């Protein structure tokens, strides 16, 4: 099949009519040919979005009830096609089917959440004091304008919906560019947008790499850009966005600590640690990739972790193994290079550390779950984001040492604390410099709660009320209740 982009209400092969091939990460087989956007296609999409917002205004001026009903219709159709979307996500990305099914469920609920939220009260009225007479002051929320949305390949459908649902709910026009590595469910989602009748030019889909992202982030006609991906790429987006000082939202890299005290429930801490690093093959920005365990608990914890992780099943993701392949050969080789680096740095590889090719996995991009022990903070495998099923283990003796080690990173996306002492859990979690944190669990996230990081992990928040406000401008309106002169000037 040949998959096209969507610009100004039309499916198109683009200016170049040029395709690239995408492969199934399970066995490297051909999956699809996808038409690639040119720089001119990007400019056409920007122009269409600008016209739809500033001139046509159908979506921008639509009442919240009608707009909400359309978003609910999108959710209903997506839910009715759950099996199709989940299977396609598995074929394109490699994650186990049950994880892809959860992603579709979350995407459905996200549309429903924002469809309801835009009908909730907003703004505020202020009791003000003015030397110019009696005033009434209040605020309203308005859509930002033309919003460019760029997402990565690890959660192709869900990351897109995290941006598209609030951006559309707020009344914006959008240009969406998913990662070229995994675009199939995004294309299918735009089929639903087309089916429900979102006005022409409001939703535009581009398919391409950094050159398209550079155009979107630097364009004077784009009012806002949000980007989820690597910190390096996010820094370039941030520089480009200075062109017109556009609004910006960044959800970037992470190297998140998972602090485990000796009084933790052993089996619970082990299972949650596995969910923290091996879910989605470790390809999660918030992955608990740094386990920091109390020294007296180390041997017991590590022994159980290795036992459990060694039994993780790998195989065809459609058959629901514990883990599937990583997304592509490039990413596989990147992770394997980090594993070799860790060995050279002196870390002790106590599990995995190689490409897994047994049985049905012989042609796929599988990596055996990998655990490095005896790690130190100066090692690159401890400092740098690997984005794969690789975890490092460090030890601490005191609470302060645990906190210092947890915060010894330029990133601040996520972190967790495991302990049976409630007061200690709250003390430590408050000291961890991260935007998303957990106590005695790892990785749950919710449409209702804001998601984002500190430090070099990003700017702004997605999800929840904050996620909607990211795509809105706040306007202050002041009304003079007694029009006329105020006698400020003597003449």
Strand order of the largest sheet: 15-16-17-14-13-19-20
Round the Cα radius of gyration to an integer and report it: 24 Å
Structural class by SSE content? alpha/beta
List segments where confidence is low: pLDDT < 50 over at least 5 consecutive residues.
none
The portion of residues assigned to helices is 25-40%
Mean pLDDT rating: 97
**Binned strand content:** 15-25%
Q: Quick one: overall form? A: globular
**Which oligomeric form is depicted?**
single chain
The profile of the biggest β sheet is: 7 strands, mixed
N-to-C CA distance: 78 Å
Work out the helix count. 15
Overall number of strands: 23
Architecture overview:
The protein is α/β, with parallel strands linked by helices. It has helices at 39-56, 64-80, 82-93, 97-117, 156-169, 184-196, 210-218, 231-241, 266-278, 298-310, 329-345, 380-383, 399-406, 422-431, 464-469, and strands at residues 2-3, 5-7, 10-12, 19-23, 30-35, 124-126, 135-143, 146-150, 173-177, 203-205, 224-228, 247-251, 257-260, 290-294, 348-351, 370-373, 390-396, 411-412, 414-418, 436-439, 454-455, 458-459, 472-480. A seven-stranded mixed beta sheet has the order 15-16-17-14-13-19-20, sandwiched between helices. It has a six-stranded mixed beta sheet with strand order 10-9-8-11-12-22, sandwiched between helices. Helix 14 (422-431) links the parallel strand 19 and strand 20 (436-439). The model has no long low-confidence stretch (mean pLDDT 97).
